[in-house]
Amino acid sequence: MSSATAPPLDRRLRLPSLPPVTQARAREQLQSLLAAYLRYRPLVQRGLTGGFVLYCIGTTYLSMTGRGVKAGRESSASTKKRGKGKSKKYRGSVNDPLFFARLKKLIRIVIPSLRSREASMLALHSAFLLARTALSLYVADLDGRIVSSLVTAQPALFLSNLSRWLAIAIPATYTNSMLEYLQSELGLAYRTRLTRHALGTYLDPPAHGTGGRLSEKDLGGTGDDGKGEQLFYKLANLDDRIKNADQYLTVDIQQFSNKLAEIYSNIAKPVLDVILYNYQLSRNVGAEGLVILTILVQASAGLLKAVTPPFGAYAAHEATLEGELRFTHSRLLESGEEVALYHGEEFEKNVIERGYFALVKHVNRVLRIRVWHGMAEEGIIKWLWGALGLGICAIPVFGGEVLGLAGGAGTLGTRTEGFVTNRRLLLSASDAFGRVMYSYKELAELAGYTSRVADLLDTMDDVKAGRYQKKLVSSSSVEGNAKMLEGRGQIIESDEIRFDNVPLISPNGDVLVKSMSFNVQPGKHLLVVGPNGCGKSSLFRILGGLWPVYGGTVYKPPAREFTYIPQRPYLCTGTLRDQLIYPHDAAMMRVRGVSDDDLMRILDVLEMGHMVEREGGWDAVREWRDALSGGDKQRIAMARLFYHRPKYAILDECTSAVTLEIEKVMYDHATSLGITLMTVSHRPSLWKYHSMVLQYDGQGGYVFTELDAEKRLALQEEKQDLEHRLLEVPKMRARLEELRAVKAERERQRSA
Ligand SMILES: Nc1ncnc2c1ncn2[C@@H]1O[C@H](COP(=O)(O)OP(=O)(O)OP(=O)(O)O)[C@@H](O)[C@H]1O
To answer: What range does the record give for the signal peptide (predicted)?
Structure first.
C-alpha cells in the first residue's frame, strides 16, 4: 500500500455507530492522542528498546547467578523452613540453594585465574560467539536484499549480493568449526583440571614422598602418618556418602565438564542473540510489538519452567544407578575364579539384572516424562512463538503507515526486503530464545552433575579432616560407647611401636577392645593370635593410619618404616620387576642402587629364581593377579619385603599358601635383615619365631606377654591330646553300657 492511495487517517479509524457529534468529538480526541503519541514516539521507542535490553541483561544475570531462583523462593514465605530437609528436596536441581555456590566453587577449580589457559580459551570462544552473531545479522540483512533484488528484477544487484553471500561463507564456516572445536577443547580442559584436583586428594601421596613402604592395597599403598592420606580407602570404608567413587571420578566429572562447556555457548550465545536480534527487530518493526511479544513469550516461558520436572535430580540419580551397575560387573570380574568354581552364574546374573532393571525403570520413567514435557516445550517454543513472530512481521505491513514504519510505506521491493529480513531475524531470535529455554533443561542436568562432583569433593575434604559420616550399628555397645567415638587419641612418632590405652573400634562403631596397651621393641617379633573377627587385622589398620585413633596414644615410626603383607598380596599393573619393588618404579630402584641381579638373589632365597625365565624376563607384563598361583603371590610379597627392608613388617596370615620350609626361610632371612616382625597367624608352626604374644580372647579382652614357644607348644599338644581323649569318652561310656547289658543278659539266662 503506497501513501498516495492510502485513505485519510480519520477514515481508517473505524468507530462504532454513535451520534455524529459524539463520533466527531471522539475522532478528534483519538486523533489528538495519536498525534501526541506519534510526536513522542521516538522517545518512547528508545525508552522501550533500552528497557528491553536492560531487562534481557537483568534476567540473564539473575538466572545465571541464581538470585532470581532464590528471590522467588524467599517470597514463597518458606525461608524459615529452608533447613536440611528443604535443601534435600531440591538436591541436584537448579532450585537447590547450594547449586550456584557449588557451581562457583567448581568453576574456580576449572578456571583458576584470568591468566589460565582455560580463561584464554573461554575469551577466544566468546569472541567467536560474538563474531557469529554479527555474521548472522549481516546474513539476515543480505538475505532480504537478495530477495528484494529478485522480486524487483535487478540482475546486477542480485549477482553482487550473491557474491557477497558466497564470500561471507568463508568466515561463517570457519567461525562455526572453531566454536565446535573450542567447546570440545574447553570440556577436555575442564575435565583435566577437575580430574587432577580430585585425584590429588583421592590419591594424595604421603608427606614424605613416594618412598613409603606400607605397600599393600589393603592398607592404602604408601602409608600414613596421620596426615589425611590413603583417602581412597577412608572414603570407601569410613564414610557412607560416596558409593563407587570410580563413577564420580570418571563419568560424572566428564559429564559435568562437557555440560559446563556446552552450557556456556548454549546460554551466552542465545542470550546475546536474543538481545541483538530483538534490538534490530525493534528498529524494524517498532518497540511496542516487541514489548508485547516479550511479555507473552516470558509468560509462556515462565509457565514452561514451572512445569519442567527436576531433570537435574533425574540425571544425578541415573548416574548413581549406572555406577552401581558397573560396580556389580567389576565385582564379578574381580572374583571371577571364585564365582566360576562355585558355579554362581545364576546368583550373579540376578544381582546384575536387579541393578540393570533399577536403571531401566528409572530411565523409562524419565523418558515418559520427557514425552509430555517435550510436547509442551515444542508447542510453546515452536508453534506459539512462531505465530507470535508472524504477527510481529505483519506490523509493518498492516500498521506501518500508522506507526510511520518503512515497511508499510515502501514499494513491493522494500516491503519484501523488510519482511524477509524481519522474518529471518525473528526466526533467529525465536531460535535463540528457544535455545535459552532448552538450555534450562541442560542447566538442570548440569545441576545434577554439579551436585555429584561437589559431593565427591566436599566428602573428600570432610574425610581428609577426619569428619566421617557412617551409619553406626545400633547395638547397645555402640550406644553405650558413643562418647568414646567422639574422642580423639594421639599419634606420636617414635622408634618403637607402642599402644597406650588405645580402643579398637571398627568403622561401624563396634568396640572390639575397649582399651589396649602393648609395645613392640625392635628385634622382638610379636605374634598376634585370637578367634576370627576379634580385631587382629584392625590393630594394623590403626597402626597404618587407616582407622582413626579414638583414644589413648599410639607411638609408631613413620609409615615408610612399615611393610604390610596380607594373605592375598596386591599385584600391580606392570612388569615382573614392578611386582617386587612396588610401590617403587624402576627409576627409584636404580636410585637406591639395586639391580636386577640383586632382585634375582632375593628370588633365589625364596627358591623362585626360575620364575624370571618362566615368565619371559623382568620386563614381562601380565595380569599377575591371574598368572601367579597363591603360593607364588605370597612369595612375591616376601621378596618385596626383602627389597624394601623396612624396620617393621606386618605379616597378616601371609604364609598360609607356602610350605613350612619357605616359611622358615622367610622368617630367618627377615631376621637377618634386621626386620622386626608382627605376625597374625593361626599356625602353631610360626610360634617359635616370636618372642612376644598378644592374645585376644574374643570377648573384648586380651593378654600381652612373653612367648615361650616350646612351653606353649607342649601345653598346646597336651591340650589337644586331652581334647582328643575327651572325644573318646562318650564312645567308651556307650561301650561300657553295652558290656554291662550283655553281662546282665548272660546272668539272667544262667539263673533261668
Ligand atoms: N572396613 C570395615 N568396615 C566395617 N567393619 C569392619 C571393616 N573391617 C573389619 N571390620 C570389622 O571389624 C571386626 C574385626 O575385623 P578384623 O579383620 O580385625 O578381624 P580379625 O581378627 O583379623 O579376623 P580374621 O582372623 O578372621 O582375619 C570384624 O567384626 C569386622 O567385621
So the answer is: none
CA 456 to chain CA centroid, nearest Å: 6
User: Ligand 1 pocket, 513 CB below 6 A?
Assistant: no
pLDDT attached to residue 709: 65
Pocket test for ligand 1, best of 537, 568, 656 (most atoms within 8 A of CB): 537
Chain centre distance of CA 95: 20
Mutation to probe ligand 1, out of 470, 506, 516, 683 (largest number of atoms < 8 A from CB): 506
For residue 695, the cross-strand partners are: 529, 703
CATH of domain 484-571+628-707: 3.40.50.300
Q: How confident is the model at residue 82 (pLDDT cuts 50, 70, 90)?
A: very low
- Residue 567 CB less than 6 A away from ligand 1: no
Domain 35-76+89-197+229-464 has CATH 3.30.565.10: no
C-alpha cell at 272: 546475546
Give the predicted TM-score (pTM) of the model. 0.67
Whether ligand 1 lies within 6 angstroms of the CB of 512 is answered as yes
Tell me the mean pLDDT in the region 737-750.
89
Task: Please give the ipTM for the structure prediction.
Answer: 0.95
Q: Please write the tens of the pLDDT for every residue from 153-179.
A: 788 888 998 999 999 989 999 999 999
**Domain boundaries of the chain, sorted by first residue:** 35-76+89-197+229-464, 484-571+628-707, 713-752
Inter-axis angle of helices 253-285 and 287-307, nearest 10 = 150
Q: Which of 238, 538, 683 to mutate to test the pocket of ligand 1 (most atoms within 8 A of CB)?
A: 538
Alpha carbon of 472 to those of 482, 735, 737: distances in Å? 10, 54, 55
C-alpha cell at 568: 592375598
- Residues 561-567 have a mean pLDDT of 85
Cα 282 from Cα 290, distance rounded (Å): 6
Average pLDDT over residues 709-715: 70
